[in-house]
Write a structure and sequence with these properties.
By secondary structure, this protein is of the alpha+beta class. Helix content is 48%, strand content 15%. Helix 6 crosses helix 7 and helix 8 packs antiparallel against helix 11. The longest helix is centred in the first third of the chain and has 20 residues. It is flat and about 65 Å long.
Length: 288
């Protein structure tokens, strides 16, 4: 509750300053999704009846447009409208920012915000059930051996997922391979196929298609982070890894810079933050 009040006060102050000087506010950084719930951020904007765009940047990018406290448009790289909004609300990592007074030309959402948030509450409950079977979008599934094989009717959409669940592809890769599907729809279908006994969890290790970070990347990172944050450094790194849905052994090189950037947001002292980012930037440059 205290965090929400501070967020509301910050928005009021910055927008008020914007009106006084008559300038166009570029962007108000609100915080990391690992520290702030996206629902709390959005609730503050709705209560304050803001007009503008809420921007999320991380492994994925998305935008939610508001007009006088109403949600009028949302988009991601793969969808728009209500589905895009529900997808964005499920994201757990990334940076959130608000650009005041930005008006969308598109209007893909027409219902009241309360109805949309109610749909999200139902979606959130479904996600919690899904996470019991699929803890991460990087989880891998494969066809299970049938103990008592018999006739079974399989729909076309089920067959598409079964054909792609080859013990190598991740859940997110399966979602990308099926046109018009997102992580939620894919995960929900996989859960149904698990319950039907057609799919089972695959091996954790899989062929790595992307270049990995160097062997000493995480040990060096922990060393540098301990310099500025002390012994809690290792726990913070593990928490961030869990949010990314990655492991140290298979962490992709192309996500390393983003990981460092998000990790640096945990450092409250600006000089120490700059010290950490500079040291890690030099290390990353040496690994290219």
């Amino acid at each position: 509750m205290v965090r929400i009040k501070k967020l509301a006060s910050l928005l009021q102050f910055l927008v008020r300053c914007n009106k006084i000087v008559g300038l166009s506010m570029r962007e108000i950084f609100l915080g990391e999704l690992s520290n702030l719930k996206l629902f709390d951020i959005l609730k503050t904007l709705l209560v304050e009846k803001k007009t503008g765009v809420l921007v999320i940047k991380g492994k994925e990018g998305g935008e939610v447009y508001l007009e006088a406290g109403d949600i009028v448009h949302a988009k991601t790289a793969h969808s728009s409208g209500e589905e895009a909004f529900l997808a964005i609300m499920g994201w757990r990592i990334g940076k959130s920012a608000f650009k005041p007074d930005v008006v969308s030309k598109e209007k893909t959402i027409s219902g009241p915000a309360e109805q949309l948030l109610l749909k999200w509450s139902y979606r959130k409950q479904e996600w919690e059930e899904i996470r019991e079977f699929i803890p991460s979008p990087n989880a891998i599934f494969r066809l299970s051996l049938q103990q008592n094989p018999g006739e079974m009717n399989i729909r076309a959409d089920q067959w598409n997922v079964l054909a792609l669940a080859n013990g190598v592809r991740t859940v997110s890769e399966i979602a990308e391979a099926i046109v018009g599907w997102d992580e939620f729809k894919t995960s929900k279908m996989i859960c149904q196929l698990i319950e039907a006994g057609l799919l089972e969890r695959g091996e954790e290790q899989r062929p790595v298609r992307k270049k990995k970070v160097g062997e000493n990347f995480f040990s060096t990172m922990e060393h540098e982070l301990k310099k500025v944050m002390g012994p809690v450094a290792s726990f913070i790194i593990e928490d961030k890894l869990a949010e990314f849905g990655e492991t140290k052994d298979f962490f992709p090189q192309d996500q390393a810079a983003l990981f460092v950037e998000l990790l640096s947001e945990e450092i409250t002292s600006d000089p120490k933050k700059k010290e950490f980012v500079k040291a890690m930037s030099e290390i990353l440059a040496g690994q290219k």
